[in-house]
Amino acid sequence: MRIVAGSAGGRTIAVPPRGTRPTSDRVREALFGRLAAWGVIEGAQVLDLYAGSGALGLEALSRGAQAAVLVEADHRAARVCRENVAALGLPATVRHQKVETYLTEPSDARADLVFLDPPYDLAEPALAVVLERLVPHLAPDALVVVERSSRSPEPTLPLGLVAAQTKKYGETALHYLDHTDDEAGDG
């Protein structure tokens, strides 16, 4: 696997030997083309949940994001993330812990751009809990991208997130979610 574009464009990154499902080059190119057109990458604080190799967060950094936190529970994948960060010299922090646990911890940092690429077999109720716990970690006008199987139902959204659009690429569906400041239900 390689970084597609930006300061680290063309550089190869390692992929964990098993247990992850890397986003295909085709889907990553479409995703980052859309994000670039929307102008949401440059200077962004990125949160890459279920990071796997860290490819999505590292691609965002290569294309101008300011910093990224890569969260991965699997110890082999977290090690690969650390190796990729070190090899590319990009400003990322790797957190080896479950996403659900990470999101219960208080944080002063707020993410502008979030990649959420859980295993396709993660049940929808569990995904709904993750999305609810994510909302307090979001900056105003943050964008959340959820990658799921194109056969999965639309994610159940908590107060504070609204569906912007969904794009399907074969077996993969990308759900783009906007953060709203409507947490009190007053809008």
TrEMBL record:
InterPro entries, alphabetized: DNA_methylase_N6_adenine_CS (IPR002052), RNA_MeTrfase_RsmD (IPR004398), SAM-dependent_MTases_sf (IPR029063)
Family annotation (CDD domains): AdoMet_MTases
Renumbered residue ranges of the record's region Disordered: 1-21
Alphabetically ordered keywords of this record: Methyltransferase, Transferase
Sample GO molecular function, one term: nucleic acid binding
Source taxon at top rank: Bacteria
One Gene Ontology biological process: rRNA methylation
Protein name per its UniProtKB record: 16S rRNA (Guanine966-N2)-methyltransferase
Source species of the chain: Serinibacter salmoneus
